Amino acid sequence: MDFVLLLTQTLNGLQLGVLLFLLASGLTLVFGIMDFVNLAHGSLYMMGAFICATFTFATGNFFIGILLAIPAMAVLGYAVEFGLARWLYTRDHLSHVLATFGLILIFDTLVQIIWGEAGIVVPLPEWLDGQVEILPGVVFPIFRLLIIGSGLSIAAGLFWLVNYTRLGMLIRAGASNRTMVSALGIDIQMLFGLVFALGSVLAGIAGMLISPITEAEIGMGNGIIITAFVVIIVGGIGSMKGAFIAAMLIGLIDTLGRSFLDDAFKLFMSSNSAETAAPAVSAMLIYILMAIILAVRPQGLFPPKVR
Amino acid sequence: MFKKALLGTLAAAFMASTAHAAEVKVGFVTTLTTPAAVIGKDMQNAVNLAVEHMGGKMGDLDINLIYGDDGFKPETGKQVTDKLVKQDNVDFVAGYIWSHVLLASRKSALDAGKFLISANAGPSPIAGKLCHENFFSTSWQNDQTPMAMGEVLNQKGVKSIYIMAPNYAAGKNMVAGVERTFKGEVKGKDLTKWGKDRQLDFSAELAKAKASGAEGIFVFYPGSAGGAFIKQYQQAGLTESLPLYSVFTVDGLSLPKLQAANFKAVLGSQTTQQWDPSLDNDQNKRFVADFKAKHGGYPSFYAAQAYDSMFLIKSAVEAVGGDLSKKDEMRAAMKSASYASVRGKYSYGNNNMPIQNFYLREVIEDAEGKWTTKVVQTVFEGHQDPYAGECSLN
Amino acid sequence: MSSNRPRQIFSLIIMVLLGILPPVFIWIGEPFYADLATRLVCLAIAAVSLNLILGYGGMVSFGHAVFIGIGAYAVGIPSYHATYGEWDAIASYNGLFQFGIAIGLSALFALIVGAICLRTKGVYFIMITMAFSQMMFFFFISQETYGGDDGLTIDIRSELPLINMDDPLQMYLLCYASLVAAVLFVRMIVRSRFGMVLRGGMGNEERMRMIGYNVYLYRLVAYVISGAIAGYAGALLGNFTTFISPEMMDWTRSGELMFMVILGGGGTSVGPVLGSILFIGLEFVIENTIALVNHDWAKYWHLPFGAFLIAVVLFVPGGVIGLFKGKGGKK
Fold first, then answer.
1. Which residues of chain A make contact with C144, given a CB cutoff of 8 A?
2. Which residue from B minimizes the CA distance to A226?
3. First to last CA, chain B
4. pLDDT class for B3, splitting at 50, 70, 90?
5. Which residues 154-193 on chain C approach chain B with CB closer than 8 angstroms?
6. Nearest to B227 among A215, A222, A280 (CB)
7. Which of A82, A113, A221 is nearest to B33 (CA)?
């Protein structure tokens, strides 16, 4: 196998992995603490991309765009919590799924009304638009490296937040025993709102980071959110560590599958059927992985200790 | 008696719009939701402009235009076609961006005895085995444009290419088309997920294309996917080492967006097409000028074909003096392709697919600083699609 | 369950209207509304089957549309081979054969998937059922022979004894009769001893286990029955639309089916039917009402529709049929 290609694809897989982690971490936080299933998490990812695009064009700089979009995403996340999620905590998961399904329709249409159907191409500063030679012969786009780098630093920041701060302590306590946290005299409503806003920011950042590569467009979150759900299920719902490992695993499987499966298939089928079968089968791979893991460990790889 | 009364009440209750003034009803199916709606909107603008240019009339008949949204899905496209045929009882069904939507919908329109005009999609079965006397195209058969590109590649002496296209009916036709004329080696192919959750991150595929050692890359990514592809192509630094040869990827829709984001890699890139905004004929000049005046940007080829489809219909209506029951005369009028097309004169083959010229176009900056295309050379003259022989019509 | 007069009467009215109105549409020459009704009835059958496990069994299956897809392809694939050759063993237009395959394969798939999924609970169950349906979605996309993503046109409908599916009225009556049969069948199951255990497992699983019932097994059987009925609905739907594609089993379709159940009222026999009517009817009404105000806004119909769905979840948790409360109330 071609070493250069393998290395490049591994990096591509990592890049997908960190994006998935940014999405999945918010999902798993919200689920772990509020026991709330948010299908519309992908819409927040989309909103992040559009809001950042708007600020980027207004200020002429992608990074200022991101800096302005982050507080906007926090406000939006808090608004969703305050306006909808809060009223559903006492209800079953089915209600969460259905209500947030409706929310997806609303967000998609709002984007269509506000920004139009066309989608927005987000421009990058010149120095980010090129590529860099990491090893002799291995050339990789700078911006994708930046995604990997910022994703990993955010992951590190999250681990610090969850493990070494007061908020993190409350989050961990809330995940395992909600009544205890309220008994400690903590404003649980406030905590929930903050966690939701944090999740929204994380999803928004993922959207902002991907938009210069693909573009900001309607419904961009509806496909990837399903993959993000697979990530948290495989990792164990509520587990940050699980989400991270599963995100990397699934990012790599998906990318490597897309990249090498057709060659593998050509060993035993015609070239043409291999070309068409491979993409679909590589799309199936992550679901097969999920089914196997759940069949063996119904709680995922790293289930939170207490629930 | 009772039946009549009931019919009257229900008809009044359900459709207030069944006024039978002298009118011609045209159903136009395109994509108005999802990101692909950007194409649908462009076509809609062109159709509305066509109606405006006609003064709202075809002959003596008022134009009653009804749009249908296919939602980028074959199933929805078929449903909306059923609605146009059965509820609105249109005389013509036109539009259709997507080959798979057209394939799913054709039966609904044709079985009901309607004329079906494709303003874009040209899947191979409809040109071949499934050809129909009431089906006409104002675009092309899918294979034709990439065949022209394959010819260009031969002329340029390109020895090997890598191919990327979406995994759906048209994508497969495009791949088949370029392979039909290209004489060099195809180093590799990738068909990517299309439809609602289409794949837009091509990192893995681009890395493979680069590693394949091909001399060029041939792609087909219509709509906004084209813009996404070109960006990543530039970001991956392939502009020099792996020249881009595309069809339906760089167009009036993607260029303004690419220009706004300053993706200069696209300037100078070449595509093949049967039409170009710079083509020199009166109909085209009027169309392009008025479109630009109204919408601020150049029309895309989708718009041009949608505009043509309305004039093709007009030629049929006028040929029978507004008597829409004379189907045979209308069919003959359309078959003669005697209307003024924005691409200039063309004719119809036995399968009602255009026999037309194909041009090589290059992306340039126009006098006002807008990015657009201009014709570089004529690749094919009077080109007919390769499936005409499979069609039993004559 | 019983002694809820207003609701029973209301349910009966719905079923009767559904039996009368569409044939009238066909009779007076309004084929479009008859088409809408036929599609609706096919989906209602699937919703009724989903209700068996969701409404009565508490199993939130987020992948029920997959059975519709399997059922539809069970019609499409034999018909394709009968028209275009190859695979003689399954090439057939015979409706009994096709419907048999539809039911059999759906049941088999439900058995395998159910055996794995039912080991999990809560949100894990929701997500794993969805994952399996996505898996089949991508599987059918990879089947290039049958059109892959582009879908498959059914050139010739199933041939059944006595019934001509090409005739809209006969087609509708077949679908309607199937719906009535499905409603009665589910009602019978639920009221049987089997149904008591199933419903008991939803309320208090531990207790049912204590008194010696293997709740897992009961759920699995219910899941298989439900899948088989939905597969049958898919075979009808495929025959009706004459066009099938992997899109039929996309996760959003499964979400819509869940909505139909909850909208009308889960855990009631006619609730899912009412839900299907409301869901499909509202899509149509909202879009056309907006179009009356401003034609260009019609494409934004998802906005009020989404808001409506949220409102139902928030304010009408028992579904619309739950508004008809008799002495018994819900359940």
1. 273, 276-277
2. B197
3. 48
4. low
5. none
6. A215
7. A113
Q: Check: CB of residue A146 under 8 Å from CB of residue A127.
A: no
A229 and A290 Cβ atoms separated by less than 8 Å: no
Q: What value of ipTM does the predicted structure carry? A: 0.89
Confidence of residue C270 (pLDDT cuts 50, 70, 90): very high
Distance of alpha carbon B301 from alpha carbon B248, whole angstroms:
9
SS3 B358: strand
Confidence at residue C264, expressed as pLDDT on a 0 to 100 scale: 92
Query: Which one of B41, B82, B189 makes the best mutation probe of the C interface by having the most chain C beta carbons within 10 Å?
Result: B82
Nearest-Cα distance to chain A for C91, in Å, is 22
Q: Mean pLDDT, chain C, as a whole number?
A: 90
Interface touch C302/A108, C-beta < 8 Å: yes
The segment with the largest mean pLDDT, out of A186-200, C260-274, C313-327, is C260-274
Span B44-57, pLDDT tens digits: 999 999 999 999 99
The Cα angle at residue A242 between residues A240 and A243, in degrees rounded to 5:
65
Tell me how far CA of residue B60 lies from CA of A190, B18, B22, B63, B336, in angstroms: 68, 19, 8, 9, 22
Q: Hey, which residues does B373 pair with through a beta bridge?
A: B363
Q: What is the distance between the alpha carbons of residues C154 and C79, in angstroms, rounded to a whole number?
A: 7
Say how far residue A211 (Cα) sits from the centre of its chain. Answer: 13
pLDDT at B7 over 60: no
Q: Can you give the length of chain A in residues?
A: 307
pLDDT, position C331: 41
Mean pLDDT of chain B: 90
d(C-alpha C318, C-alpha B231), whole Å: 50
Instruction: Please name which of C114, C266, C256, C105 lies closest in space to residue C190, comparing C-alpha atoms.
Output: C266
Q: Are C41 and C280 in contact (CB under 8 A)?
A: no
- Kindly report the backbone phi and psi dihedral angles of residue B277, in degrees, each rounded to the nearest multiple of 5, phi listed first: -60, -20
Nearest to B204 among A212, A222, A258 (CB): A258
Average pLDDT of the residues in B307-329: 94
The shortest C-alpha distance from A262 to chain C (Å) reads 12
Q: For A236, which residue in chain C has the nearest alpha carbon?
A: C124
pLDDT digits (tens, 9 = 90+) for C41-57: 999 999 999 999 999 99
First CA to last CA distance, chain C:
5
Phi-psi region of B113 (alpha: psi -120 to 50; beta: other; left: phi over 0): left
Q: State the pairing for strand pair B135-137/B160-166.
A: unpaired
What's the whole-number mean pLDDT along residues C146-156? 87
CA distances from A94 to A24, A35, A98, A172, C205 (A): 20, 12, 6, 25, 18
| Cβ–Cβ under 8 Å, residues B120 and B139 | yes
Yes or no, beta carbons of A121 and B235 under 8 Å apart: no
Task: List the 126-185 stretch of A: residues with Cβ below 8 A of C.
Answer: none
User: Are β-strands C243-244 and C152-153 bridged in parallel, bridged antiparallel, or unpaired?
Assistant: antiparallel
Q: With beta carbons under 8 A apart, name residues in chain C contacting A281.
A: 138, 142
A147 close to A18: Cβ distance less than 8 angstroms: yes
C156 φ, ψ to 5°? -130, 125
pLDDT in tens, A151-166: 999 999 999 998 888 8
DSSP A298: T
Q: Does C74 touch chain A (CB under 8 A)?
A: no
Give the chain A residue whose CA is nearest to the CA of B257. A121
| Residue B323 predicted with pLDDT over 50 | yes
- In A, which residues are within 8 Å of B33 by CB distance? 112, 117, 218
* Contact state of A300 with C130 under an 8 Å Cβ cutoff: no
Q: What is the pLDDT of residues B99-138, one digit of tens each?
A: 999 999 999 999 999 999 999 999 999 999 899 999 999 9
Check residues B394 and B248 and name the one with the higher pLDDT: B248
* Distances from the Cα of C56 to the Cα of A46, B132, C203, C272, angstroms: 37, 51, 10, 12
